[in-house]
Every structure is written in structure tokens, then in C-alpha cells.
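Components:
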Amino acid sequence: MNIQTIENIVNKHQQQQGSLIAILSEIQATYSYLPTDALQAVSKMTGKSLIDIYGVATFYKYFSLQPRGKHLCSVCVGTACHVRGGEVIAEEFEGQLGVAAGQTTPDREFTLGKVACLGACALGPVAVVDGHYFSSVKKTDVKKILERARDGLDKVEVKTDQRIFPIDVSCPRCNHSLMDASHLVDGHPSIKVTTSFERTHGWVRLSCLWGSYTVESQPEIPLDTVVHFFCPHCHAELVTATSCADCGAGMVPMIVRQGGVIQICSRRGCKGHMLDLV
Ligand code: FES
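Structure:
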């Protein structure tokens, strides 16, 4: 743990609302877990009690107090995935990795977890490895998924991938289209979702062009604000267990009708978006 790194993180977020979560998220993104000495340093620098800091660190499942493996695998055993064999898939991951869910392999390569819902029920059984969705997973797919993770999954990020093409998305819960042809953004049908942040409710229209960050919202969302996104049809929150690799905020999943899942960072201004086409 580098004390200067912790100090920089604390200084960067201290003035923000919800600063403790942002601080812990960035520490976790840096070390892949929350080291004890880092939490003690945060306590000294912010004046918050260690008990309060541990309260937040243990309340959110996203945070880990134990070192985690290089690759994170989450297998969904929520109701929709369970009825399609999610438990069998989780057992296959356990067998292939030689550890139980919640554990890390001795070589620190993989940490395996079971989650209650990954926000893509229509595609179950679902597993997420290093932020990549694998849909309709079969027992025979597991070995290959782990091999691909070891080799490094080909993450498509806007930062490195400047392709611009339209995508057509739907709600991962009710599968209803989120496209609104009556309101164009970037000259194409917009993606419309409802939102809430800091007790304010409204809507957001996103460009459907992959590679474009054009966004319209009512009310205006201040930069750096973490926003909750909801389906305007079934009103389910669009949320997953995955966190943005860039800023630690939650990712917002949507089903790509051409096949696959798109995840966008819930923090206004962050460009940590990912697209997995299948
Ligand atoms: S139950 Fe598995 S993604 Fe929702």
C-alpha cells in the first residue's frame, strides 16, 4: 500500500457527496481489494471513524476486504438463471477451478462468486467474467470461458474502439424495446430510460450509436453524479453486480437486440462502457 496513492485518492473525492464510497471504490480499483492499512489511512485523512468505514466496506457486496484473483467470475443463481441450470453451471466453475464460490484459487488467478441476479435474466444462465457477459452458458462452455479469461478477454471499449454503429437495445428484465423512434439523437432513434439521482427523478435519452456519448436529460445531471437507471416499461432498475473498471460505479446493462449485452457506466461523464456481442 502506497500512502501517497491513498492520499491522492482521498483528496480527489473528499469534497464530493458520497465521497467515502468513491474513495473506497477507487482504492479497490487500484488494489483489487480494500487493504486494512489503506482503510486506517482513510480514517486518519478523512476524520471518519474506522467503524463507519468498515460499515460501508462490509455493507456493499462490491467491496472486498480479502485479496481477490486477477480474474473475477460471477455465476448467476438468481431465479431466472436457477430454473435454467445456474447452479449446475456454478458447480462446473467450482470443479474447474478447484475452489468453492466465494474463494480465490491458490495461484490468485481467479475469484469465484455466486450472485443473485446480473440484470440480464432473458439471457440466462448468465456468467460474468472480468465484466464480460456469457449468456445461455452450458456446462461444456465453462472450460473454454476460463481459458479465454486466462488469455485475456477481448474487451471492446470506446477508448480503444472508435467504431460508430447503431445498436438496438431492450430491457434486460422485461425485454421491452428501449428505443424511441419519435425522438432522434445523433439522427437515430434514441434510447430512453427513466432516472433518479440525489432524490431527483427524470429521464435520459442516449445516442444509440456505439462510440457516441451524446446524451439528453431532464433535469440536467451534474458531472460525476452516479445515476440510477430504470426501464420505463417495467420500472425495474437496470443494475448489475459489475462495476466500472474506470471509476468503480455500477454498470447499467441493456440487451442488444442484434445479440449481446451493452453495459454503460452509471456515472455521468465516465466513458467506461463495454459491449459484448454474441
Ligand atoms: S436471474 Fe440471472 S440474470 Fe437475472
